[in-house]
Design a protein that fits this description.
globular; mainly alpha
């Protein structure tokens, strides 16, 4: 731990770091420690960045120099990365879901042609 980090209140550091990590995860920059997957939700990322920004505004004049620099640096990095992510196309895999057919059956549940003909033959024999 550097001298600068020693001067930062541990509770303040934990709070802003948790919001920063959440924003990184929500931008799809790092994997979720819970699911192990990289997921992208820019609306949630924007909310996390906005909370850090609000915290910066509300604490203005009450932070020491190291805390102010830490928060300013976090916000700058998050905003630049958010801008970069927002200009990328949406993740196509999130939009692709199995769509049921008109009857409500998925393709996997539809009988094959041979099964359908066998059913017709059984019906005719009965």
């Amino acid at each position: 731990m550097t001298d600068t980090e020693k001067n930062i209140n541990v509770h303040f550091f934990t709070l802003v770091s948790s919001l920063q990590v959440a924003a990184w995860q929500q931008m799809g920059k790092i994997a979720s420690p819970i699911t192990g997957k990289v997921e992208r939700n820019l609306d949630q990322a924007r909310a996390s960045i906005d909370m850090l920004s609000m915290l910066s505004e509300k604490t203005k004049g009450n932070l020491d120099d190291e805390e102010e620099k830490l928060l300013s640096r976090m916000l700058y990095e998050l905003r630049m990365n958010y801008l970069d992510e927002s200009q990328k196309p949406p993740d196509e895999t999130a939009d692709k879901k199995e769509t049921p057919t008109e009857s409500g059956d998925s393709e996997a549940e539809k009988p094959t042609q041979a099964e359908g003909e066998a059913d017709k033959k059984d019906d005719a024999d009965a």
